[in-house]
Design goal:
The chain is α/β, with parallel strands linked by helices. It folds into 3 domains: 53 residues, lambda repressor-like DNA-binding domains (434 Repressor (Amino-terminal Domain), Orthogonal Bundle); 120 residues, Rossmann fold (3-Layer(aba) Sandwich); 127 residues, Response regulator (Rossmann fold), CATH 3.40.50.2300. Helices cover 43% and strands 18% of the residues. It contains 12 helices and 12 strands. The strands form 2 sheets. The protein has a 6-stranded parallel β-sheet with strand order 2-1-3-4-5-11, sandwiched between helices. Strands 7-6-8-9-10-12 form a 6-stranded mixed β-sheet, with helices on both faces. α1 packs across α2, α1 crosses α3 and α2 packs across α3. It is elongated, with a radius of gyration of 26 Å. The termini are far apart.
């Protein structure tokens, strides 16, 4: 059966003609009802419903200057860490009656800058998760767009971050309690703000506890980055490894298993993020849990509230060490 011609959608002008009013009256009935007589508005809406007319969101956006759309940019959409962020952001956007657009910046500052420039004019605001842009670039972007940073902070821009000071202290205390006298931090991308904060926190807590802390890397924060990181740590004789994130940590665990290195009997391994699957690997991974859904939701909430205040907001969300079987006493203890 050959389909017939597509049915023409009724327009605002069609409603105006059928209702016997001006097109501007129909427009105001939908966009600014307080300026239309209640009886007239009810008549217009009734005619519109009978004709099957619905306002064009794009046209309404042109009239109001708002699109009711937000953008969330993440460095790697395949990283399970961002699944929680996306879920939380989508939940908060839906609750506010907004649509969320998702972009993948591919761990690249230049790609992120292009996306911000392209999406900025067509959305009401952007959440930049783990942004790779330099501080000056972020401040310039914030002058032109409503922006909230997630897992990144810079002066003059709203942000939502994890409490890495407390979190890294929990990690070091845990390792010290098992008799480890040193550990190696297997770092991620050189431009990672969170990676720098984690390393700074680990260094400070190690100094307080009298532990030696060494940084290796940068390594790609994926499963594929694990083998090189694990081999370097084994060559250094490390008894405890703290990895940039869970993906790298799971890659390290796989490499250690391939080489017949017992975990945690010979080497303890700690990650960051507590992603889905961190408790499925062998052995289950000890990791610092960040409340990613809450972080995504809070970032959207802060973005929505931006128009109501001129003050910069900074939110610090709690972290918690989840202890599993990948950590244990230092060898000989």
């Amino acid at each position: 059966m050959v389909p017939g011609p597509a049915r023409r959608r009724p327009t605002l002008t069609d409603v105006a003609t059928a209702a016997g009013v001006a097109a501007s009256t129909v427009s105001r009935a939908f966009t600014n009802p307080a300026r239309v007589n209640a009886h007239t508005r009810e008549h217009v809406l009734s005619v519109a419903a009978r004709l099957g007319y619905a306002p064009n969101p794009a046209a309404r956006a042109l009239e109001s200057g708002r699109t009711r759309t937000l953008a969330l940019l993440v460095p790697d959409i395949t990283n399970p860490y961002f699944a929680g962020v996306i879920k939380g952001a989508e939940r908060a956007a839906a609750a506010a009656g907004l649509t969320l657009v998702l972009g993948d910046t591919q761990e690249s500052a230049s790609v992120e800058e292009q996306l911000v420039r392209r999406l900025g004019p067509s959305v009401d605001g952007l959440v930049l998760a783990a942004s790779r842009l330099p501080d000056d670039g972020l401040r310039r972007a914030a002058e032109e767009n409503a922006i909230v940073l997630l897992n990144r902070a810079t002066t003059g821009v709203d942000c939502v971050v994890a409490d890495f000071d407390s979190g890294t202290r929990q990690i070091v205390d845990h390792l010290a309690s098992h008799g480890h006298e040193s550990f190696v931090f297997l770092g991620g991308p050189a431009g990672s703000w969170s990676g720098a904060r984690r390393w700074r926190g680990l260094q400070g807590s190690a100094a307080e506890r009298g532990l030696d802390a060494t940084r290796f890397g940068p390594y790609t924060p994926t499963l594929e980055g694990g083998p090189a990181a694990a081999d370097a740590a084994l060559a250094a004789g490390a008894t405890a490894l703290v990895c940039h994130n869970d993906m790298l940590a799971i890659g390290v665990l796989r490499r250690l298993a391939q080489r017949g290195v017992a975990v945690p009997e010979r080497v303890s391994v700690v990650g960051f993020d507590d992603i889905f699957g961190a408790d499925f690997c062998s052995p289950p991974l000890t990791t610092l849990a960040e409340h990613t859904r809450d972080a995504g939701a809070r970032a959207v909430e802060v973005l929505v509230q931006q128009s109501r205040t001129t003050e910069t907001a900074s939110w610090v969300l709690p972290t918690q060490l989840v202890i599993r079987a990948s950590t244990g006493p230092a060898p000989g203890r």
